[in-house]
Amino acid sequence: MYKAIFIDIDGTLRNDLGEISDITKKVIKETVSKGIKVIICSGRPVKSTIEVSKLCNASNYIITSNGAYGYNYKDNKCIYKNPMKKQSCIEIYNLAKENDVNFIMNTEIGRISTKERGVEKENILSEPIENFLEKTDVMQCLIQDSNFEKIRDLKPKIEEIQYVGIKNQSKSLTNPYEKPREVTYYDIADEKTSKGFGVKNMCEVLNIDLKYAVSIGDDYNDISMFKETGLSIAMGNANDEVKSFAKYITKTNNENGVAYVLEKIMKGEVLC
Question: Is the domain of 103 the same as that of 175?
Fold first, then answer.
């Protein structure tokens, strides 16, 4: 029997309306009741990942910021972390400032932004970036703006910065057929950070052999955890490249694909 199941949020747990169905919540609760840890693994910051975890009845462990931070929110305990180098954050901040785009930092104390758009007013950076970084670890930075071309053109400059990598980004930046949405973004973290890195670290701390771990996702940033777990499951709505890294393809996020495959796992069906 598998001991831990790592699940992505958007495009996986949530349908295209941004909802988690009642059947998915019910099946996750049943899975946890059998002693299997269901762990949300997301590019999101701590607060919103906890909210999703509680909403869908998952376990009290989460992986956030594309694998940079593992946390037990029941015991308020950091499981592991891989913060960014301070100089890298400063360079990204300076690029964002020069180009007048929003710069956001995911930290243990919350999400801090340089602009008010999309965040609470009390979470605006109110001191020099150097001062802030002296006392706070940053797990992940985000660059975002409503101007698609501005974000697209900044990407090569971000990729030149040492010790970091783009871990996730708007689909419109990688797919020419994808229409830009209201906000275009990318997530930036330490070069070693990935969801696979997070899964590996979480399993090590929880003393779970990776061959007894499952990963479920739909996008490129989920491939790294597919490579680490004994069973990897791609959503039916994932593109063909992402699916090629998975051992099993479930139904789409609009067809309760997570609930469908969790029920199979609980029945002990062989998935390959």
Answer: yes
- Kindly report, residue by residue over 67-87, the tens digit of the pLDDT: 999 999 999 999 999 999 999
Q: What is the pLDDT of residue 74?
A: 97
DSSP 8-state assignment for residue 265: H
The whole-angstrom separation of Cα 250 and Cα 261 is: 6
Q: Show which of 190, 208, 236 is a domain's final residue.
A: 190
Backbone angles phi, psi at 89, to 5 degrees: -60, -40
**76 and 103 share one domain:** no
Q: Residue 123 has what pLDDT?
A: 87
Token pair belonging to 102: 């929003």
For residue 16, being part of any structural domain is answered with yes
Residue 271 counted as domain residue: no
Q: How many residues does the chain have?
A: 272
Q: Which long-range contacts (CB under 8 A, 24 or more apart) does 69-76 make?
A: 69/106, 69/108, 69/139, 69/198, 70/198, 70/201, 70/202, 70/205, 71/46, 73/46
Distance CA 65, CA 9 (A): 12
Looking at 128, 161, 190, the residue that finishes a domain is: 190
Domains of the chain: total: 2
Q: Which of 164, 214, 257, 163 is nearest to 38 (CA)?
A: 214
Give pLDDT, residue 34: 96
With the CA atoms of 55, 124, 73 and 12 taken in that order, what torsion angle do they form, in degrees rounded to the nearest 10?
40
Write out residues in the chain with pLDDT < 70, as ranges: 116-122, 272
Please name which of 125, 129, 44 lies closest in space to residue 88, comparing C-alpha atoms: 129
